[in-house]
Amino acid sequence: MGLNISKLPNGPEMYVGEGFGLTQIEKVIGMARANSIWPLPFATSCCGIEFMATMASTYDLGRFGAERLSFSPRQADLLMVMGTIAKKMGPVLKQVYTQMAEPKWVIAVGACASSGGIFDTYSVLQGIDKVIPVDVYVPGCPPPPEAILDGILKIQELIKNEPLRRRESAEYNDLLHSYQID
Ligand code: SF4
Questions:
Q1: Measured between alpha carbons, how far is residue 20 from residues 3, 10, 13, 14, 29 in Å?
Q2: What's the whole-model pTM score?
Q3: Could you read off the pLDDT of 9-27 as tens digits, one per residue?
Q4: Quick one: which of 86, 111, 158, 168 is 20 to 30 A from 45 by CA?
Q5: Domain total in the chain
Q6: Contact status, residue 123 vs residue 95, Cβ threshold 8 Å
Q7: For all residues of the chain together, what is the average pLDDT?
Q8: Domain of 23, in residue numbers
Q9: Cα–Cα distance between 86 and 94 in angstroms, integer?
C-alpha cells in the first residue's frame, strides 16, 4: 500500500493512504487553534473604529475564523489592544491579560498601543509591552483594516507553529516573570 504526502488547504502536511492520514498532533492542534481565535477587543480610541470596519461585511474577520468576539477575558485567547493606553489604564490592561487562560496571544494594533504613538507625554503608556508581552505589532496611525488582517494572519502563523510545550518552557516563564506575572 503506497503512501502519498498531501496537504490540507492552510493545514499541515500529512501522509495519506487509503482511508487515513497521518500527521503530528501538535500540527493539528495548531491548525485548529489558529482557525478558531476568540479575540477580546480592548479598544480605547480611534484604532477601535478601524477594528469595527475589520469586523464588518467588507473585510469580515469571520473569514479567518475569528468572528466570535469575547468581552470576557476568561473566554478569549487573543487580546487585541487598539488605541491610546493611559498609564492609569496599564494595571487594568494587565489584569485583563492575567485573567485570560493559556494559551493566549496579544496584538498591539496601531502606533499608540505599540509605542504611545504621537502622545509622547507624561500620562500615556509608551507601548503596551511595558506591562504585558506582545506577540505581533501592527503599524499605522490608524492601521487600515488590511493591516489589521495582516496582523491576524501573522498571529495565525505563530499559533500554528507554536510547540505544545512552549507554555511550560523556562523561556516563557522567564518572560512572564519579567512582567511580574506568575
Ligand atoms: S494610533 Fe493613531 S488612530 Fe490609532 S489610536 Fe493612536 S492616534 Fe488614534
A1: 10, 19, 13, 10, 18
A2: 0.93
A3: 777 888 888 888 888 899 9
A4: 158
A5: 2
A6: no
A7: 94
A8: 1-34
A9: 13
Query: Is there an atom of ligand 1 within 6 Å of 83 CB?
Result: yes
**In a mutational test of the pocket of ligand 1, which residue from 47, 81, 89 has the highest number of ligand atoms less than 8 Å from its CB?**
47
pLDDT for position 13: 84
Q: Average pLDDT, stretch 98-116? A: 97
Residue 44 and residue 20 in one domain: no
Atom of ligand 1 nearest to the CA of 45: 5
At 116, the amino acid letter reads: G
Residue 1 has what pLDDT?
Answer: 59
Q: Is the CB of 142 under 6 A from ligand 1?
A: yes
Cα(8)–Cα(12) distance, integer angstroms? 6
Q: How far is the CA of 65 from the centre of ligand 1 (A)?
A: 26
HSE-up of residue 72 (Cα within 13 Å, Cβ side)? 2
pLDDT at residue 7, rounded to an integer? 73
Q: Which one of 85, 112, 124 would you pick to mutate in the ligand 1 pocket, going by the greatest count of ligand atoms within 8 A of its CB?
A: 112
| Atom of ligand 1 minimally distant from the CA of 44 | 5
115 in the same domain as 29: no
Asked if residue 179 belongs to a domain, the reply is no
